[in-house]
Design a protein that fits this description.
Layout: E1 18-22, H1 27-39, E2 45-48, H2 58-68, H3 72-77, E3 79-81, H4 84-87, E4 93-97, E5 107-109, H5 111-123, E6 128-132, H6 141-145, E7 149-151, H7 164-180, H8 197-213, H9 223-237, H10 241-256
Parallel strand pairs: 1-2, 1-6, 2-3, 4-6, 4-7, 5-7
Helix pairs in contact: 1-2, 1-7, 5-7, 8-10
Amino acid sequence: MVGAGTDRTKAAVAGGPAIVLVRPQLAVNIGMCARAMANFGLDDLRLVSPREGWPRTGARRKGAYAAAAGAVYLLESARVFDSVEAAIADLHFVYATTARERGQLKRVAAPAEAMAESAAAYGARQKHGILFGPERTGLDNREVSLADAIITFPVNPAYASLNLAQAVLLCGYEWFKAAHGGAPPLAAPERSGPATREMVLAFFDFFETKLDERGFFRPAGKKPVMQRNLRNIFHRIGLTEQDVRTLWGAIVRLVEGPRAKVQTRKRVRQKKPEG
């Protein structure tokens, strides 16, 4: 859901490798890449000779900004270069993304390995960058030759082509895990403390007594086995104090029926005397 996870009250994460889009063809894809970057705290967007020019005005600008879905600050701060060499001049290490073997004898790494290296380098104040080629053709051999290593993605070999923003997203995800940890941001709600044995056994006695009264344990010879099966179900759950209280109350209502309706007194409104 667009915007559902946006929280302007929280501090934004920033840093990471530069994302260098080489000859991107569509303004909307640039916007989608910006959104992927914002998801994982990447804040250095560089564009090399965008095919349609950089959409500062008009319909292309509107499309890019809409696709960015709130990450327009990355579009506003994006830097545009005439060549890959100029775009990577200040970087210490560069990866090129490609799905094809280029015969250049470069080291090939999956995103998880590459981004772990980038996170370590970032801590040592070294700047890494990742080259992404145009949507239709990818990087050419000359552009790949400018990189120190290759990033490729473990995908279906029969269909290895990724959308540009998808490729940025996968690298960003691995970067964020390496730099900030992979724990989910949402924690499970805190449960009440575990029920004591005394509490659990008292519940079992109550529950089994009510079942016995209703003829559940039949034939009588199987009662011990049936009791064990029932108890093991609850043991596997790991009952908390609140669990026991809730179950106990539910069984009471099933046995005793609905609570008696409490008669409430209706307030009688006094009419103001006329005149």
